[in-house]
Amino acid sequence: MISSRKWGEYKGKDVFLYTVENEKGMKVLLTNFGCTVTGIQYKGADVALGFDSLEGYINQSCYLGVVVGRYANRIKDGRFTLNGLEYAVGKNLGDHHLHGGFQGFDKVLWEIDAEDKDLKAVRFSYLSRDGEEGYPGNLLVKVTYTLDEDCTLKISYEAETDHATIVNLTNHTYFNLSGHDAGTVENHKIKIYSEQFLENDDTCVPTGEILSVSGTPFDFREFHKIGERIDDDEIQLKNGGGYDHNYILDYKADGELRLAAEAVVEDTAIHMQVYTTMPGIQFYSGNSLNERKGKNGADYGRRCGFCLETQYYPDAVHHPDFPQPVLLPGQVYRHTTSYQFNTLE
After folding, report:
1. pTM above 0.85?
2. Which phi-psi region, left, alpha or beta, contains residue 226 (left: φ > 0; alpha: ψ -120 to 50)?
3. Alpha carbon distance 298, 307 (integer Å)
4. Phi, psi of 206 (to 5 degrees)
5. Of 77, 192, 297, 334, which residue is the least packed, with the fewest Cβ within 10 Å?
6. Domains (range + CATH), the chain
7. Distance of CA 312 to CAs 12, 24, 108, Å?
8. Active site residues
């Protein structure tokens, strides 16, 4: 079932809130402002941080639930070179570019492209004009949210361009499997299917070095609590105030979904599995979340949500040995990420 209602206005245009519900009673709430997931209701808990009103999303700075782009994560020094031409993009994180710049895809109104009540799917689209935030090419982006009967939220991304450009899209939902208002996620257990991660400098931009997780607080090949080692005396943790690192996944560029990560918490027994077609996953432990009022007056403070953002590597444009996020005219950018929910016995 899909229902919708007007949720407000932005720059004179209507903003809508969609509710997608499957036969098992799971609900996903979406809005066309920022192509945003505003809620994920499963087994009596809303496990996605968010706001009660449109104004919360307009004024936020932490990217709760939104699609970020044209390039998710960081671009060092706000510059990149493509086909011999240098482009300057917005420096909205000190000297660096983050999540699309000052007005990325999270701060625009998307078109409601289609809805399919049988498939329980809603598709949004956005045309990013040539030169927007400094990026080359007119880029048409389509994002489809589908809620399956097995309680999987599937996010499918497509993009086409009329000029060589770079594209790296992801969803920035903050999860708390105890409920969005339950406080810290340090008691959540995480498993990441990766043996390597990227070293960051003191601004959380990759240095280009690939490190082994073995013997480090970054080893989540078996389940560990987020808070178990997060405050260890380790420079990589200190640089970001916790986890904010890209993990390297088994990537074959064949479009097949592969299990990338899992999360579980004991109090609700809610278990989430993340599948993706992308080469990297950014594990972020909500280190920069500051005290703000979320849904139902909840206090959202430091580490009260975590993100598992599937994507190309941060700053890949400066590291030719990384998988490259270049999109050329005539090509179609595609990737899919699924978040599957169940409960442990």
Report:
1. yes
2. alpha
3. 18
4. -60, 140
5. 297
6. 2-343 (2.70.98.10)
7. 35, 33, 22
8. 172, 309
